[in-house]
Structures are given as structure tokens and as C-alpha cells.
Amino acid sequence: MILWLLLLGFITYIILRQRVAHQTRTPVWVLWLALMAPAFLWMAWFVIHGEDSPLPTEVALGSFVVSPLIYWILFFWGRRDMRPPLEQDPDVTPSRESAGIKGVSRPVPSASLQELRALNDGEEQQLRDCFDWTVYALHQIDYRPQAVICRGQLRSPPDSAYQKIRAKIEDKFGDRFLIIFQEDFKGQPFFILVPNPEPAVQLDELNKPGLALLLAGITLFTTTLVGSQIAAVSPEQVQSNPELLLQGLPYAVALMLILGIHESGHYFAAAFYKIKTTLPYFIPFPLFLGTFGAFIKMRSPMPNRKVLFDISIAGPLAGFVVTLPLLWWGLVNSTIVPLPENPGIFQITALDPKTSLILTFLSKLALGSQLTLTSAINLHPVAVAGYIGLIATALNLIPVGQLDGGHIIHAMFGQVKAVRIGQITRIAFLGIAWMQRLWVIWALLLFLMPVVDSPALNDVSELDSRRDILGLLAIALLLAIVLPAPRLITQWLNII
């Protein structure tokens, strides 16, 4: 438990530093202390009374109410005169770069103050000439600090309108502008012209195979080290017989395969659409899981919502396809143990499979009649890696902000609706965390993540039905992972 709380503190500080620090004058460390107060309370309680003694319910609930309240008071007390882009003005595009909790980041162009000058009269007329009234009837041109806004009425299919107007603007102005097509809060489409960022980065500058291999090698070592501990090999035994470290390889290879395939799904989907991106890089860590995951970084804006959807969903689906057989094999080679009275958050030596609907099905398929209502599972190291892969898939599919699920919902419903869905999801996850303690940390972290996703260049054209169905299936997969198996299902599976 203490290790989980330390990890929460580290991740919370990083998110506050990257996402909140520029929005308030209140020092980051003060906000961090306010948010981490419940965790400090839990740690103090466990140190004094031991992990087997639960924190009183009224104290725990009180800390989770008071801590966020103090955080928001401190935040708004020092808040700078700024608001999130969609709340401030639907015309203004989000920040230059946004990043998910792991995996993909996408740039949105910005410009220096010198570049942010209005068009002169002759250039404005040239811009007006680019809008054919049969395609998009231009009504007005507004100037903003970071954009030229072209408002009007759409009179042709969005995809066709964007392609035609973009071609004319590029014919008149070359590569001086990037043309973004999105909707305001009322669902009215408008064009945004932002100064083109600096010359495109070459792929050779992004891809560093030597660094990628070095990080993968270090991560293989750190995950093998953790895997040996999962295989019940103590550090003292490894020191006396280094060959015992190899018992951690099944966990290490399985986990790196899952994480690597996930990021490779993003990478190859991006390569298919000619989106400039880095190679997948692992993040080694000598404790906890042995790694903080892997990531890629994209350096090109998404051309449309179709590309955004395909690249975003490719990672979770690819990782899940690998996770399923590894988890099943690991469960087959796991052992049944009695269910403890108070199962831990991540108690891999006595895991209750009923905490997840999909884990319940897989466990019954792998273990058959051995699995009963009072059974827990002592996970094989490969099953541990598969279980982590299952959790990672769920985390990435949460429909909030720059997570893969946030990108998917954005692509399906548009940027404005995605923000509303993200807000609802934050609240819903608090309810899920109430039922499943495993998700408490992530439910809290969701409130630190921005819900606004960066727009695609053509952010108006909608997806086809096939992609919409696939997106709904992805959300169904998320629910199947995070929701516990209902009593009716356990009875049907004869887990009684």
C-alpha cells in the first residue's frame, strides 16, 4: 500500500507541474501537499497501526472531501487570468502540445508574437476569395492573438469543403498557415488559420534507434529484477546465485511485449498515415513494476478525426490482443488459494478474479471447476504481466482528455461533446472507485488531467458507422475490465 501511495505522490507532482503550474500563482508544492493529505494520513495510519488495520471510514471519507476542497480554494486563490480554451473562447485552439498519461502526444501549432499580426487589406481580400459561397459562405473574419477566425455557413459536405478551401488558401499563401476546421459550442463550423510552426522535423531527427534499444535493454533488466521477486526469489538468493535472476524473465518478457505492442500499434498506424512520430521508448524503473510503461511522441497534427481515431485505438487494441492469450496462459499455470478476508489492492498472491468481469470469464475458462466463490488466485508471473496489461488497457481507454479513450471519444463525437463526456467520466470513476479500491488512485488523477483534447486539422468531418461501432466496443471493453462481475454472471459460470 505504501508503495502505491508513493507512486501516487510522484505522478501527482508531475501532473501538477506540467498541467496546473502555469494556471495559478499558488506554489505547486502547496497544491501537492493539499492533494496528498489523504495519502499522508493513510501512510501515517499504516506506519502506526500496520497495513492490516483499516483506516476508519469516517476519517477516510472526511479526508477525501476536505482535501479537494482545500486544493480548489488554493488553486482559485492564486489563479491567473486565464481559462481553458473551450471555456474562454471556442475560437481559440488549445495549447501547442498535449500529452496523455502515457503513450501519445500531439502538437498543435502556435506562433510568436511577431507572427501573430493581422493580414493587411490586400491579403484579407485574398483570403476572402478563397471561400466559395457554394462551399462555405464566409460572413466575417475575426482576429485573435493566436489565430485568424473565418466564420460563415457550411453549404457542402464538411470533408469536401475543407479540402477545397484548404487547397485555395495554400495556393494563395503557400505554407504560411495551417488551416484548422472545427465547431464551436453551438455546433457551427468555422475555419482557423494559425501561422505554420517551424519547418517540419525530419524523421531521422525523431528516430533514435540506439536510444530506443538502450532504454529497452535497461527496462528488460529492471523488469527481470522485479519479476524475480514476483517469482519468490529474494535479493539475497540472487546475490548468492545470479542465475536465479532468470526466473524473472517470463514476467519481464511478457510485460514488455504487451507494452511494446501497444505503442507499436500507435507507431505503425501513425506511419501508415505519414504522421511524423518517434520510435517507441520504454521508461525503466527499478521498483514497483520495473517500468513506467512506454511512449511515442508525435510531431505532426492530425489531419482529421478518422486518422485521430485509427491511431488512438490501434494501441489499446493491439495491446489487448497480446494481453488476452498471455493472461489466459498465466492463469492456467496459476494456483487456487483461499480468498482472504480483506483482499489487497494488488494482491497478486491472492487475487479475487470477481473484481473484473473480463477477468472472471478468463479465470473460469482457464481454471474451470477449481474456481469457486471463496477462491482467489496466486498469479503466475506471466499472469501478473497479463493482469497489468489488462489494467493498462483500461487506463488508456478512459474517455478523458489526451488519453487514448479521450482521443477516441473526440473522434466519435467531436471536441465539445468529448469535453462533456470527460467531465461525466471523472465523476463516474469516483463511483467505480467506491466499489473497486484498485481504481481510487486513477479516479483522483483524472481530476488533474485536462479534459480538452487538441483538435484535428479537419475536426468537423464525422466518422463512418464502422468506426463508431468499434469505438463503442472499446468503451464496452473498458467497462468489462473495471466493473466487477455481477452475481448473476458468477452464478451462470457456476462460481458459487
Description:
There is one protein chain. The chain has 496 residues and is an alpha+beta fold. It has 3 domains: 2-82; 111-195, Gyrase A, domain 2; 254-492, no CATH class. It has 18 helices and 10 strands. The strands form 4 sheets. A 4-stranded antiparallel sheet has the order 3-4-6-5, with helices on one face. The chain has a two-stranded antiparallel sheet with strand order 1-2. The chain has a two-stranded antiparallel ribbon with strand order 7-8. Helix 11 runs antiparallel to helix 13 (381-397). The two termini are 30 Å apart. Mean pLDDT is 81; it is low at 81-117.
Summarize the structure.
The protein is an alpha+beta fold and 496 residues long. It has helices at residues 2-20, 28-49, 57-77, 85-88, 121-129, 158-173, 203-206, 209-230, 235-240, 249-272, 305-332, 357-367, 381-397, 404-413, 415-435, 440-446, 465-482, 487-492; strands at residues 97-99, 105-107, 136-144, 147-154, 177-183, 189-195, 281-284, 291-295, 335-338, 375-378.
